[in-house]
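Quick look at the format.
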Amino acid sequence: MGCPKILVVGGGAGGLELATRLGRSLGKSKKAEIHLIDSSNTHLWKPLLHEIAAGSLDTGTHALSYRAQAHNHHFQFHLGRMQQLDQANKRITLEPLLDEEGRTILGQRSLEYDYLVLAVGSQTNDFNTLGARDYCYFLDSTDQAERFHQHLLNRFLHANSQQAPESGPRLTIGIVGGGATGVELAAELYQASEQLAAFGLTNLSPESIKVVLIEASDRILPHLPERISTSAKDELSRLGVEVKTHTRIAEVLSAGFLTAEEEFIRCDMMVWAAGVKAPKFLSEIGLPTNRIQQVEVDQSLRVQGQERIFALGDCAACPQPDGRFVPPRAQAAHQQASTLFKSLKRLINNAEEQPLPFVYHDHGSLVSLSRYSALGNLMGNLSSGSMTVEGKLARLMYISLYRMHLRALHGFWRTLLITLSERMHRSVKPRLKLH
């Protein structure tokens, strides 16, 4: 009888960290076969997508090859998208893989499992708003961020060639959603606009670009303390961002947003960054899901009613002892990957063992305002309260979160080399990606 097979579906922060750690341990020692499935060939830390979109970060520098990671850390990688789940035979089916012209590269494939982990993350929730999918950009993947960036460059070029209007900006970008993604993207766009004149677009300046940030609730960053929300709004306003709260979008049109109060907000480009939901297929494969399509799991991350299927990260609705659910954050996925790694090792060594309960530890949240600043709160779950950090210290802490993710994937020394390589890359490359 062969060794047990563990399938991890989804190569985001949690899924890739889990597959890497299982590969280093169980895969290397031949105690289990570890398989990772993802629909992309490369991994990019999702909190970096707004920088890809604005052009302040180059995908090629930060993208990680799943196949190289699999080779280096003793697991197998499969390119594909999960389509079906056969619980009786412990098998999943992957969709056919097609090229850009619709021709079949790989047909429908099946993979058997002894343990299955769903780690497919989340996507933006447009709440079925009319026109949102037709006219808005979404930033759920590297491809979407790069598509936005290419369109942004085209808009910059067009605006630079036009005669200056008598009043108002040359280019208006509307962002729906005042959470971390919307706030960070707004700041990053202004950082990008400051570089344009240096690269020949001399008719453009930060004053030529207008960003409108639209939030339905009474303040931006509603899940963070009010002081942080106020500081972020003040900083964005200083940059020139128009922040509109208490504003719900009723419909998206080709030329802008129509609000519930029937106000029209004209925009040249529109981004939807409000709300999250899990991928739709999760609600179609026979597992219990909630209203936003997250798989319902118990506190050990095991899917309700299942013995050998687990879920982690944004796609899992995981209850905590206080009755609340784990929030969809990168730090939560990282912590869940660590807990599930220990649980699966226990189960592989002794099937009679029980998986460990997961307890979420909120270490606070940080929001980056490009190179201008950062702010957030630390140790958010301590009874003594949280500590607010701003400025350069918060910026360094924000950057360190990415370094922690790299260390989980590569170890200390490789992460150090990657960091040095990135710094050398920045010293010879333009600060704004222009292609």
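Next, a different chain entirely:
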Amino acid sequence: MKILVINGPNINMLGIRETNTYGALTLGEIERKIKEAASNDAIMSFFQSNNEGAIVDRIHRAYDDKIDYIIINAGAYTHTSIAIRDALLATKIPFIEVHLSNVYARESFRHQSYLSDIAEGVILGFKENSYILALAHILSRVKKN
């Protein structure tokens, strides 16, 4: 099982930016927690970019890399990017949308997602545990099959 975790803009600033909203852990610390949770059940890879085109390119490359699942926190691009949506549709790789914060407890412009209706599921509001919950779901699906 090969799982790719994609993070969008400003996620590289975790641990510095708005810790009340996003938590105090850095992106590197979150990635370590995800790897630990995956144990030997999945091969994890990680990608972060502040650039929409780079995220689209990585989703395309995921198809060639035969990635089985994507966990994506597209950050602000969640609310704006038709290009990321189209890349996910093109590759047909199942994915789970995650958010560190509860976007529905925030500004109204964050309530719209271009990804949610095509995602297998959406997990939000549990800070770094949003990723762990997404991973647990994926691994439970694999064990059932």
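The longest strand covers residues 2-7.

See the schema section for token definitions.
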